[in-house]
Amino acid sequence: MDKTGVHVQLLSTVPVMFNYWAKPEDSLDLSRYLNDHLASVVKRHPKRFVGAATVPLQSPELAAQELKRCVNTLGFSSVMIGSHINDWNLDEKKLDPFYKVKNPS
Question: InterPro entries per the record (predicted)?
Answer without folding.
Answer: ACMSD, Amidohydro-rel, Metal_Hydrolase
